[in-house]
Amino acid sequence: MATGIEFLAAGVAFVGCSLLPPAAAQTGTRRREVAVNGNRVKTIDVHAHCSVPEAMALMSAPRPGPPQLLFSRVQDRIEAMDAQGIDVEALSINPFWYKAERDLAAQLIKIQNEKLAEFCDAHKERFVAFATVALQYPDLAVEQLVYGVKTLGLRGVSVGGSVNGEELASEKFHPVWAKAEELGVLVFLHPQGTAELTARLGGNGGLDNAIGNPLETTIALSHLIFEGTLDRFPGLKLCSAHGGGYLPSYAARSDAIGVTFPERVKPLKKRPTEYLRQLYFDSLVFTPEALRHLAAETGAGQIVMGTDYPYPWTSTSVDHILATPGLTDEERIAMLGGTAAKLLGIM
After folding, report:
1. CA-based nearest residue to 159, from 182, 136, 143, 126
2. What is the pLDDT along the chain (347 residues), one digit of tens a residue?
3. Do the Cβ atoms of 297 and 273 come closer than 8 Å?
4. Torsion sign, CA atoms 305, 331, 286, 313
5. Where are the domains of the chain?
6. CA distance 35 to 105
7. How far, in Å, CA of 65 to CA of 53, rounded?
8. Cα separation, 105 vs 55, whole angstroms
9. 309 has which bridge partners?
10. Is 42-64+79-344 assigned to CATH 3.20.20.140?
11. What gap in Å lies between CA 119 and CA 9, rounded to an integer?
12. Which of 37, 271, 273, 317 has the fewest CB atoms within 10 Å around its CB?
């Protein structure tokens, strides 16, 4: 089990609680090898959290996640990956720095990206990482993205669902999307909730998470579609967490808006639902029917596996994909790791 002791490898801390029984954590866990129809599959988790305490300290940021989640040793995480059948994790950090002043943001991101790169270099077989950028300063973010990818070897960039109230579709951020498209790297979008709805999402049920997170993703993706951002950057590789929020479940309404209220929609190159097939989505939906429907709406080749580690509600992501009816072997292989390997340059 994870303890209250912080173990920082290369300055990277894993937020987590043990997903293994005590005996397994003490004695080590035999690595689960995943196969589809007898063929070994390299599994890749695109949605896994970590933090760099040294960077967080610059903003006096609290530890991310619920207080009961403890920092865990690297071996704890690897043992959890082994038990779940995860071969490679793509690490990302949820933005807490979007309100930072420019000089602080530059210092923080440099520390963060270099620590991520150092850690992944020390564990090449098991981890890759997304660069972090100060998106509130797009020119700086472009520099950080280039340095992170070309110099540090990071495999893409992680971003929040909005930036201090500004939509990702704002022209302000076009230089960042243009550079990501030019570099051919994956952009991983993780929501930060909908702070503007705090009053309505209070009370019982954890609605700020249950509704607020997927809602922000839905809003962000909808703006990227309707403001023409995806037309402007057709080669942008964008993957959203939590199955794309609510958009794939109700995307046909977006098409209907253009038919029923055409004056509200500026010309696009295709119907809104068609853009789902140029986006990527993680598999973090909670039933086989939800995953089947996501694949029907987006195409199975657009889905990559996401666990949301260390949150224990997704410790069965491999089995979720394997057990969803109606998928072909090729589709399961793509979801488990084939598509992510291509997007992240994992051999």
Report:
1. 136
2. 232 223 344 567 665 433 333 334 444 568 999 999 999 999 999 999 988 888 988 998 776 553 323 334 688 888 889 999 999 999 999 999 999 999 999 999 999 999 999 999 999 999 999 999 999 999 999 999 999 999 999 999 999 999 999 999 999 999 999 999 999 999 999 999 999 999 999 999 999 999 999 999 999 999 999 999 999 999 999 999 999 999 999 999 999 999 999 999 999 999 999 999 999 999 999 999 999 999 999 999 999 999 998 887 777 899 999 999 999 999 999 999 999 999 999 98
3. yes
4. negative
5. 42-64+79-344
6. 43
7. 13
8. 10
9. 48
10. yes
11. 7
12. 37
Would you say 341 and 333 are in contact if contact means Cβ atoms under 8 Å apart?
A: no
**Torsion angle in degrees (nearest 10) through CA of 160, 85, 66, 54:** -70
Residue that has been written with the tokens 């029984």 in this structure: 21
